[in-house]
Amino acid sequence: MTLSPKKSQGEFAKIMTAACVRRGYLEKLHAGITPVTRTGDYSDVKVIDAEGRKIPWNQVSRINQNEMKTLIIPLEKCAVLLRRHGEIFFGSALKKSSVGKNYLGRP
Fold first, then answer.
1. Residue 51: CB partners within 8 Å, gap ≥ 6?
2. CA dist., res. 29 & res. 25, Å (int)
3. Which residues of the chain fall below pLDDT 70?
4. Which pLDDT belongs to residue 101?
5. Phi, psi (degrees; rounded to nearest 5) at 21
6. CB under 8 Å to 82, separation ≥6 — which residues?
7. What is the rounded CA–CA span in Å between residue 94 and residue 32?
8. Cβ contact 81:66 at 8 Å
9. For residue 104, with 0-12 CB atoms within 10 Å meaning exposed, 13-18 middle and 19 or more buried, which class applies?
């Protein structure tokens, strides 16, 4: 079964997401308490910092540099691993997709 190019791209993205992101550091970041909003857009939510500043939720930086680094480095390594050895891990899925054929260097 051959998938359309658009469907292939979606399937390949799902494979990479599952392999590189799920069950990683992003899950730990996501595990915190989510604030309640009555407006639906979080414009009614404020964060009060240690200096007493009330910061609108939509303006709060929710990830610091160390967390970003901890998140990105494994993703970069995973992307390199998939690029080099993706056929070993996902051979049949890649072979069925037009994206995979391009990824694997095949016409």
1. none
2. 6
3. 1-6, 86-107
4. 47
5. -110, -50
6. 16, 19, 20, 89, 90
7. 35
8. no
9. middle
Token pair, residue 55, equals 């910061």
Alpha-carbon gap, residue 63 to 16, rounded angstroms: 23
Structure tokens at 36: 């309640």
- Both structure tokens of 13: 């993205």
> For residue 17, what are the CA distances in angstroms to 21, 47, 78?
5, 31, 10
What's the pLDDT score for residue 52? 97
The pLDDT value given to residue 48: 96
State the DSSP code for 3: P
Are 44 and 38 in contact, with CB atoms under 8 Å apart?
A: yes
Which residue's entry shows tokens 């964060």? 47
